[in-house]
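Pipeline run #58 for the internal structure catalog. This entry was flagged by the ingest filter as a single-chain record with no existing model, so it goes straight to prediction. Upstream metadata was stripped on purpose; only the residue string is passed forward. Reviewer on rotation: M.T. Logging verbosity set to normal.
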Amino acid sequence: MPNSEAAASRKANDATKIGPKSVKANFNSIYNQPDPRAYFRELYGLDYIIPELARPVFASIVTELEHLRGRPLRVLDIGCSYGINAALLQYPVDLDRLAKRYANLPESEIGPAQLAMLDRSYFRSWPRHEIEIIGLDASEPAVTYARTTGVLQGGIVGDFECNPLPPDAQDVLSGIDLVISTGAIGYVTEKTIARVLSAIGEPKPWVASFVLRMFPYDPIAAALHQAGLATEKLPGTTFVQRRFESEDECRQVTSRLTALGIDPTGKESEGLLHADFYLSRPDHEAAGSSLTDIVSIELGTRRSFGRRYISRPGEPIRLVR
């Protein structure tokens, strides 16, 4: 291999070893609050949009799977936090409505326990799609809140990159039809996925993942293949997650993408984190229809975003509106 190619290969390999905490902005504190108000203030303040963009994709997959299974589904949301995906899948509410709701409920007037009861009544006032959603997350406060409000019907708490699933995990996960994720991949790797699939057992579930472009999905796809699942990437489409939190995050992400051989031009270079979508299915079910037969989407890039850090070739990073 020529020296230049070897250097590029080493650079890409080094980039894949960089942990997410060293690249993405750190929002750990907002996931460990007793209610989701800080979550919405911080992330929605950065035009966090991916749960809303994911909803019609997940809904299409749920419809297809309900037809195949002939019954209501059991779904596992990896990285569920406060149950945002669960709320959007079950009820006719959108992310804007939820964000405005929490913005109007100050901590000084309403405590977390009271807010959880208000949320429980709020969600019960809407018609509900019949589906059971289990959450898996490292944050006990977030999972507890989502279970208290009723948007999650069960939950598993822990970091399963290094630790085994709890003893009751097989009972909780048995019969899961669909595993979803909108932001956990990168923090969660093939180690957690393999543990989850082992606990679910047979029949194998479908796995639907939105993955930031800076996190290679190949290791997870390989683990899924080993479990008998075929993986497809939705072609020609990416999904906006949010805008960059800082100039440093912009620089780190675009540098990582470049090291991986991924061109950020027109996507991350425009100040927005982008994700790819992958669907993995048991081989015999994947043979029946393609991903594009199931999923039809529209991009979120035309949304009106706040101030963005723009990184274009030959120019310094700029903060623009």
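catalog note: The domain at 3-320 is CATH 3.40.50.150 (Rossmann fold).
catalog note: The longest strand covers residues 272-282.
status: ready for reviewer M.T.
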